[in-house]
Design a protein that fits this description.
α2 packs parallel to α12, α6 packs parallel to α7 (169-176) and α11 runs antiparallel to α12 (301-324). The chain has helices spanning 13-22, 34-46, 57-63, 65-81, 98-106, 121-137, 169-176, 214-223, 239-247, 260-267, 278-294, 301-324; strands at residues 26-30, 51-56, 88-95, 111-114, 141-146, 151-153, 156-158, 180-183, 200-201, 207-208, 229-231, 271-276. The longest helix has 24 residues, at 301-324. By secondary structure, the chain is α/β, with parallel strands linked by helices. The chain is built from twelve helices and twelve strands. Strands 1-2-3-4-5-8-11-12 form an eight-stranded parallel beta barrel, surrounded by nine helices. The protein binds glyceraldehyde-3-phosphate, 1,3-dihydroxyacetonephosphate (13P) and zinc ion. Residues 93-94, 153, 189, 232-233, 275 line the site of zinc ion.
Length: 330
């Protein structure tokens, strides 16, 4: 057993309590490789933002569990060398079983998500409770999910979103003992969050999505005062990246995400964790496509992964400073 405390990580309890009180959200950035992790650490150290390093089961398989543990430890060390004493959590994203959560906790994760949102209500409570009982013995925090987001949640695929029913949240939180709750208010995973027929098109032909269900969020907040709420599927799908990808040979038609003003509004409420994966993927891919196009003779990976990392740093600093409000809160 390797405790996250030995790696210099923290769980999410204190960072969430401060974020809920302060009206901002902690960024939860997904990563799979070194460049992404370096970018997260540099962006958050430079903006003095607390951060959640977020790993899906797929990312864990890709990076290797042992490698991950040392990467997280290295990330903490690197942030200190940058002169920033920021709180850093390592979180399992969309854990789909008790065993996976236990294995992550035994290997240095400070927080886990048990995503049993596809199960029946009582089964979701029971599985979440089982994970909570194990996790809390090790001072690890647990995120659960109620309601379902459309799109791909690792190996779990939902065709359409099923909004969280606010009348369920008190019973769920009380029954499961979870530390934070992901809710479904209209976001979804990936770069195609809405179908074109759900959107309007502006004069430039860019899709404008329908508004999130802030009424559901407000009702959940009313029923769970001060309780940390999590927003998944919260990438904005930044249009400049999509256009750059398409300009340099990509094919991403009608990609659409959550506008920044809606994320700002969510962050100011009880939403204290905002999950961002797709925007990072888009930033990297746009930069790599351009770098390879501009220098077709290059074959040193640093020549395209370096610009990709720089773009990620820019993106994450912008999110922390101008969207989530987490800058300066470490
Ligand atoms: O919610 C899903 C995350 O974007 C992780 O995606 O399973 O492809 O690593 P992944
Ligand atoms: P995006 O696909 O919108 O970045 O959402 C990521 C996410 O929710 C990870 O759990
Ligand atoms: Zn998610």
């Amino acid at each position: 057993m390797v405790s996250y405390k030995e790696l210099g990580l923290v769980n999410t309890r204190e960072m969430f309590a401060k974020a809920v009180k302060g009206g901002y959200a902690i960024p939860a950035y997904n990563f799979n490789n070194m460049e992404q992790l370096q970018a997260i650490i540099l962006a958050c150290a430079q903006t003095k933002s607390p951060v959640i390093l977020q790993c899906s089961a797929g990312a864990r398989k890709y990076a290797n569990q042992t490698m991950l543990r040392y990467m997280a430890q290295g990330a903490v060390q690197m942030s200190r060398e940058e002169g920033a004493n920021i709180p850093i959590a390592l979180h399992l994203d969309h854990g789909d079983s008790y065993d996976l959560c236990v294995s992550c906790i035994e290997n240095g994760f400070s927080s886990v998500m048990i995503d049993a949102s596809h199960l029946k209500f009582e089964e979701n409570i029971a599985l979440t409770k089982k994970v909570v009982e194990y996790a809390h013995k090790h001072d690890v925090t647990v995120e659960a999910e109620l309601g379902r987001l459309a799109g791909i949640e690792d190996d779990v695929v939902a065709a359409k979103s099923i909004y969280t029913q606010p009348e369920d949240v008190e019973k769920f939180v009380k029954g499961s003992g979870c530390d934070s709750l992901a809710i479904s208010i209209g976001t979804s995973h990936g770069a195609y969050k809405f179908k074109p027929e759900q959107c309007k098109r502006n004069a430039q032909g860019v899709l404008e999505p329908p508004e999130l269900r802030f009424d559901i969020l407000a009702e959940c907040e009313r029923r769970l005062p001060g309780f940390p709420i999590v927003l998944h599927g919260a990438s904005s799908v930044i249009i400049e990246y999509v256009q750059q990808i398409n300009q340099y040979g990509g094919k991403m038609k009608d990609a659409v995400g959550i506008p920044e003003d809606q994320l700002r509004r969510a962050a100011a409420s009880a939403v204290c964790k905002i999950n961002i994966d797709s925007d990072g993927r888009l930033a990297m891919t746009a930069a790599i496509r351009k770098a390879l196009h501009d220098a077709p003779g290059e074959f040193d990976p640093r020549k395209y992964l370096g610009p990709a990392r720089d773009e990620l740093i820019k993106l994450m600093k912008h999110k922390n400073e101008a969207v989530l409000g987490s800058a300066g809160k470490a």
